[in-house]
Amino acid sequence: MKSVEWKEWEPQYNRIVSRLNLDSEADRNATLLLDSLLENKPSDSVLEKLERMIKDKVVVVCGAGPSLEHHLKRIIPSWGLIDVVYVASDGAASALLEFDYVCDILVTDLDGDPDDLREVIRRGAIPVVHAHGDNMDKVREFVPSLDIVLGSTQVEPTERVSLWGGFTDGDRACYLVSHYNPASVILAGMDFGDEVGRWSKPGHRSSYIADERKRTKLEIANELISDLMSRVDLNITILE
User: Fold this and answer.
1) CB atoms within 10 A of CB 45
2) Is residue 229 part of a domain?
3) b/e map of 15-39 (b: 16 or more CB within 10 Å)?
4) Are 63 and 90 in contact (CB under 8 A)?
5) Residue 186 is assigned to a structural domain of this protein
6) Contact, 200 vs 63, CB < 8 A?
7) What 3-state class would DSSP assign to 144?
């Protein structure tokens, strides 16, 4: 499945627009920009590779929350998992690099450390770049340099930009993975409290307190993941 139906996602999106006072037209312009930048990039073959990578596998989706370090250093190694697919949501790519994990898929709106994002892509991660009204400059700068890239949106999908559902990088990664029949999904570093992990944005050496807008985004992410878990027949474990 490449995209969800817009009519299915639209009510969720409209509620998010109201809560965060988003500019829907800017989101649509960003999507059209990304679509134009993807014109000469392969897409169907990359989507097929993405599906093969996820299908019937244990997938660990990494958020950039403050618990991620504990999960990567202590919890996940103790489970002795084999043949696992690791998905980094944006800045979590920096943590995977720091703790010597292979990043297989990168879901990003380009807020993370650009050098680390490029490094996990250089090492083989499939980048799924998300376009919205606030990141058009980053999309314009980043996407043309990539040989392989998929595009995502939170409004109507286009021929080259997919709508998987979800809003923040973390919950959008969960929605994306759920489309391709994984054996199970483990959510690491998914924290929905007042504290933001140090990998969320460049320049932080430690976790920091979320501002009001960030707290609202974390609430939305929590709600969307809870809704996904209630609707899909999929074993999803949230690490504590």
Assistant:
1) 9
2) yes
3) ebeeeeebeeeebbbbbebbbebbe
4) no
5) yes
6) no
7) helix
Round to whole Å and give the CA distance between 137 and 134.
Answer: 8
Domain hosting 42: range is 6-238
Confidence label for 206 from pLDDT (cuts 50, 70 and 90): confident
Residue whose pair of structure tokens reads 């009519």 in the numeric block: 7
Whole-model pTM?
0.96
- Let me know if residue 1 belongs to a domain: no
| DSSP single-letter state for residue 182 | -
| Interval 19-28: pLDDT, tens | 999 999 999 9
Q: Where are the alpha helices (DSSP H) in 21-74?
A: 24-37, 44-54, 68-70
**65: domain CATH number?**
3.90.1480
Residues contacting 229, CB < 8 A, separation 6+: 236
Helix (H, G, I), strand (E, B) or coil at 154: coil
Q: How far apart are CA 67 and CA 48, in angstroms?
A: 32
Domain count for the chain = 1
Distance of CA 100 to the CA centre of its chain: 20
Length of the chain: 240
User: Is 112 part of a structural domain of the chain?
Assistant: yes
Residue 177 Cα to chain centre, angstroms: 10
